[in-house]
C-alpha cells in the first residue's frame, strides 16, 4: 500500500460539473487532485438547448456566475448553474484545459468516452520523456447534478481502492472488473506514458 497520495486528474468536457464534483470529493479525502476539461470552449446550458452560454477557458467561475446572474438569475438558479458555479469557485478560480497541462499524474479519470479518446490522443501525441506510466480510465457519467454526485462517489471509491493496492500495475484490471460488476457501468482503461 502506498503512503503517498495518488496524483489524480479528473476530466470532463468543460471542467464544470462532473470533473468538479469528483475534484471536490477527492480533495476532501486527501488526494492530490486537479480537474480539467477537453473542449475548445466551456459550454453551460442557456435559455434553450440551441443557445448555450459559451466561455473561454480563461474566464473565471466568478465571471461566469456574474454573467449568468445578469442574463437571468431566476433561470440559472432554477437549473442549478449558479449553485454549481458557487461550488466551483470555492475549489479553484477557473476551468482548466487538459491539453494545456504539463503536470504528471498517476491516474487520469475521464467522465465520458469522447473525453477519454481526447485525453488518450493528447497523451499519445506528447513526446515521451520519462516513460513513466499513467493509467487513463473512463467511466461514463451523465452530465446532470445527480449523476455527477453518484459518479464522484464511484470515482472516489475507485481511487481509494487503487491507493490501497500493493501493486497498481498488477491489480488494476481485476479491480476495474470488480467495479464494473458492482456499479453496472463499463470502464475503459489504457496506459499512456510521459
Automatic annotation (TrEMBL):
- Enzymatic reactions: O-phospho-L-threonyl-[protein] + H2O = L-threonyl-[protein] + phosphate; O-phospho-L-seryl-[protein] + H2O = L-seryl-[protein] + phosphate
**Gene Ontology BP terms:** mRNA 3'-end processing
Q: Please indicate which superkingdom the organism of origin belongs to.
A: Eukaryota
Q: Under the cellular component aspect of Gene Ontology, which terms does the record hold?
A: nucleus
**InterPro entries, per the entry:** RNA_pol_II_suA
Q: Which UniProt keywords apply?
A: Hydrolase, mRNA processing, Nucleus, Protein phosphatase
What GO MF annotations does this protein's record show? RNA polymerase II CTD heptapeptide repeat phosphatase activity
Cell compartment(s), UniProt? Nucleus
EC number assigned by the record: 3.1.3.16
Q: Where this protein primarily resides, as one coarse class?
A: nucleus
Function as written in the Swiss-Prot or TrEMBL entry: Protein phosphatase that catalyzes the dephosphorylation of the C-terminal domain of RNA polymerase II. Plays a role in RNA processing and termination.
Family per similarity comment: Belongs to the SSU72 phosphatase family.
Task: Quote the protein name from its UniProt record.
Answer: RNA polymerase II subunit A C-terminal domain phosphatase SSU72
Species for this entry? Puma concolor
> Gene symbol?
LOC112871544
Amino acid at each position: 500500500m502506498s503512503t503517498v497520495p495518488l496524483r489524480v486528474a479528473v476530466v470532463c468536457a468543460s471542467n464544470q460539473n462532473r470533473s468538479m464534483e469528483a475534484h471536490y470529493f477527492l480533495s476532501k479525502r486527501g488526494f492530490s487532485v486537479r480537474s480539467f476539461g477537453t473542449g475548445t470552449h466551456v459550454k453551460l446550458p442557456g435559455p434553450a438547448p440551441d443557445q448555450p452560454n459559451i466561455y473561454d477557458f480563461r474566464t473565471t467561475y466568478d465571471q461566469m456566475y456574474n454573467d449568468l446572474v445578469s442574463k437571468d438569475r431566476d433561470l440559472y438558479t432554477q437549473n442549478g448553474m449558479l449553485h454549481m458555479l458557487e461550488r466551483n469557485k470555492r475549489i479553484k478560480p477557473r476551468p482548466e484545459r487538459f491539453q494545456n497541462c504539463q503536470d504528471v499524474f498517476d491516474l487520469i479519470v475521464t467522465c465520458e468516452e469522447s473525453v477519454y479518446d481526447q485525453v488518450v490522443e493528447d497523451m499519445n501525441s506528447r513526446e515521451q520523456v520519462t516513460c513513466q506510466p499513467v493509467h487513463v480510465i473512463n467511466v461514463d457519467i451523465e452530465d446532470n447534478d445527480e449523476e455527477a454526485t453518484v459518479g464522484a462517489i464511484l470515482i472516489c471509491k475507485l481511487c481509494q481502492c487503487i491507493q490501497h493496492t500493493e501493486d497498481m500495475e498488477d491489480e488494476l484490471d481485476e479491480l476495474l472488473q470488480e467495479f464494473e460488476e458492482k456499479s453496472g457501468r463499463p470502464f475503459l482503461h489504457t496506459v499512456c506514458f510521459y
